[in-house]
Amino acid sequence: MRVEHWAVFTSQEGLAMKRGHLQDSGSRARLGVPAAARASRPAIVVFLVAAALTVTSCGPTAEQARAREVVSSSPAAPVPTLRPTVAPEPVTAPTAATATPTPEPLKVGVTGNQAGMPQPVQDACQFLLRRDPARMPAGEAGDCVGAAMTAGTGAIQTLTTSSSWIPQGTHTVEFTTAPEFSLTLENPELGLRVTSGAGGGSVDTGSGSVSANASGTPEEAYAAVLAQAAELTVNPDRVAEMLGGTESLEVDYGAVLNGAVRTKISGYRSVDAAADDMMPAGVTLWLDDWYRPVRFELTGQTRGIASSITAVNSAWVS
Question: Which domain of life is it from (predicted)?
Fold first, then answer.
């Protein structure tokens, strides 16, 4: 260990040791240091070093004390408050056991009901009351409309024909469906009057009444054809037969007719053009709120002749 000595020697030594070091006694002798001083110099150095260490260990200096007072008088820095954090729950995909079940769509198997509608009509028209979107079975359509017409007990019909079994023109038909069926078709312009019902039928063309008889005279057979044709859109049994023979029936629950919302039924029939059943190939009906027909549109061919019938019902009795 090498100890540097500054400002503790004589002026002669200071000049010699300004940048040097006292390495041994020979060096000091060459500098002209007295022997007594040279002999006591190590003791003096030890004393000074010990004194310095003693002073340092006794306590802080004045500057250190003042610095500590400043630090102690300063406001303590706020200690941040640590709040526990909750780790977010992991997002997991729903499993078959935890997934929310999707409600099944409403089925049309519920029972339909309409206040004020006669019970026989409700029983026969469940398909329409449920507003079933499927194709309507032909048998159900025939039963529904037939029951509704019977419950209506009667109405007035404006019948317009073109190349059908009934003479071409516009005719007025008054008919009843209950307690028994009957009709009277009139066309003053043609001088035509046709009746039909439980008591039989007749045709009057201005030259007298002729009874309707399919197996009678030619006049009677012709009267029977006219009477049967007049029943096609007013007799509940004939309407049910016509609808029951359709192969495909579509229902439109929001059809608009003359500004009113109606239920529309339309379909087709496979018919023999040579047959005498007078049934049309194309069938379209508009029904009111009670499922009574308010309009018919029938098209087809009869013995190779295109025919068209439009029938509009009004003034249903009930």
Answer: Bacteria
DSSP H or E segment with residue 273: none
Q: In whole angstroms, give the CA distance from residue 202 to residue 208.
A: 10
Q: Which helix (H) or strand (E) holds 200?
A: none
Read off the pTM.
Answer: 0.65
Contact 257, 143 (CB under 8 A): no
196, 183 Cβ separation under 8 angstroms: yes
The neighbouring-strand residues paired with 307 are: 300
- Enter the tokens of residue 6: 């500054």
Q: For residues 67 and 127, state if they share a domain.
A: no
Instruction: Please report where in the chains the tokens 């079975």 appear, as a residue.
Output: 137
DSSP count for the chain of H helices, then E strands = 9, 11
**pLDDT tens across 178-205, in order?**
999 999 999 999 999 999 998 899 999 9
Domain count, the chain: 2
* Token pair 């499927």 in the structure block, residue: 134
172 is written with which tokens? 């007025």
How many Cα neighbours within 13 Å face the side chain of 303?
6
Q: Which CATH number covers residue 217?
A: 2.50.20.20
